[in-house]
Amino acid sequence: MLQQRPVSRTALIWLMVLQLAVLVPLAFNLPMWLMIMSLACWSWRLAILNGRISPPDVWFSGLAVVVCIALVLLLEGRIVHLKGFALLLAFGFIFKLIELRNLRDALLVLVLAILLLAVNLLLSQTLVVSIATAISFFVLLCCWVGLNHIGPKVQWRQPLKVAGLLYVLAAPIAVALFILVPRLPPIWQISVNSGQGQTGLSDSMSPGDMSQLIRSDTLAFRVSFDGPRPSQSALYWRAVIMTEFDGRRWQQANTLWFGRDPVAHGPWPKPLDSKNTPWISWPERPQPWLANSATTPEYRVILEPSQQHWLPALDAPYSADNNIGLVADQRLIHRRPVLQRIQYPVVTQQRGAAELTIDRQLLDQHRQTYLSYPEALNPQIQQYAQDLWQRQPNATQFVTTLLQTVRQQDYAYTLSPPLAGQHAVDDFWFNHQRGFCAHYASAFALMLRVAGIPTRVVGGYQGGEWDEQANYLQVRQYDAHAWVEYWQDDRGWVRLDPTAAIAPERIEMPFAESLREQQFEQSEALTSWRFSRSEWLTSWRQQWDRLEYLWHRNVLNYKQQQQLELLKKWFGEFDWRQLLMSLVLAIAGFIAAVALLQAKPWRKPQTDETVLLYQAMLKKLSRLGITADESRSPNAILQQLNHLPEHKQAAIKTWIEQFMALQYSGQRGATQLKQLKQVLKAI
């Protein structure tokens, strides 16, 4: 039956509108070439609809399948992953609309659209994608209503009216289910790696890499503080600790800390194993360097997808999240690469003399890692550091002299330094003396190691832009920063930020504001519209950032703990069985209320005027001795008129004929009803 039933022109137009609506949320996650192909197929379908070309032949379907699989393999490299599955669904969706011939094909297009939108939400759940998906589902519902309409013609307004009513009726039920249904942990998980690279910190650092990172205004993460907010100069977000130096580039010791390279992961990245990572303290396998910490989080971080394991946090962090570990060098790491936006709570550990003793023991095991450097490269700065250490063989005095040097001499902070040669640190320190955080951190760390002081370079972010209205901090990629930590026996690891000496405004105020104040190559360093003087553009961007932040914190991150806190706030102590029973009763009551509003049993039923007129005729005939009720047809009544005078028979027959003509003509005007009433009175 579905194959025999054709699809109306109006329903076909709705399906074409649906295809355009589905392409909008897909454009955020799937490649542009697929969007171009979809628009080309849409134009093909439009030409078929207008009768300009014929539909494709049967062999087209088989050829389209082969071409689709070949394109996915050629352009994406693999099929067995979420994005490959989404691409195949998209191909089926756009090509099925071209060969659509009957209702069965149309319903299959709707099913493909539902699957495609659902898979797209696995790839991205941002606010704009969610809004676009909701609109697409509304158009899909309009198509469904139009396809199931039984009648000669489908009107444009009918699907819109019915779909809008269904949306309005379903919204309260959806909200109640979202808030009240128990949030259980997932039984199984799949990798949602979209395969798209993200701008962010890597496990290595060279001045060129950091320069490109600072030139990006992509959002890195957001932070909300449960207590007082630290000062701008205290916001050092540690993420990567780099200890291996080859003369130009600083590298994280992945094999040492993680047992393997956590960056080199495939489409199905394996999580870090707590049994094979002895230098990481996991919740199920705590290590001695985990200090006693409070249970109440001090701040919460919403991290954007980075494709990396490391999680930015302030000094001495700890997180109770089961998927987050604490590395021995006091930074947080996730079991898997962060492929989707996540939120995690952080507590600052209370570290004292016992923890300092543990740090000394760890340092003794890794001292050589913090002291090694290539002696064949950068000979000038090695000699310079050795001479300075002979004059001032004290770590504090040594560092103080270096900071005074960059303040008093012609060193400058710039995002566009000259290119360096083979001895990169020598060229920077003695020749051009112009650079940014990576240059200064690299030079200071090398000189400290030459002096025999254990040193490491820290990559992360500094500062951020505070939103007073929404009360959260947003940190972007241009806030990326590098600094040094060196060891002192009486203090442990001490932070040293040379940038604070050469460009204190970079530390004491948000980076965007310091750019405007000092004009550090503003037009080249960052997207120009981001720092436009247009107030309405800046205000619009801030408002959207707030909505995105609230969407993730209150909707996407609505998990079991947040649900329990909300329900206890509303109902106090409760039992899950009572809550589920209340939920069922509430939904049943809502459905019953909607049914009552639709049925309106309290209203007196309205009877058709023609029915009332026919009932009046039957009463008059009964007074004339004719057996007549509503079960008898008009023709049966005419056969009982033989005993009446001929003029009455003719009048009754004429009235019944006029009534029948009015009843089945479909045109019941007030004039015809009035004439029938007058004729009835005369009988």
UniProtKB/TrEMBL annotation:
Tagged with keyword Membrane: yes
Residues annotated as transmembrane: 12-36, 57-75, 105-123, 129-150, 162-181, 579-597
Pfam annotation, one family: TgpA_N
Alphabetical list of Gene3D superfamilies matching this protein: 3.10.620.30
Keyword Transmembrane set for record: yes
Keywords, sorted A to Z: Membrane, Transmembrane, Transmembrane helix
Domain Transglutaminase-like: 429-500
Protein name as annotated: DUF3488 domain-containing transglutaminase family protein
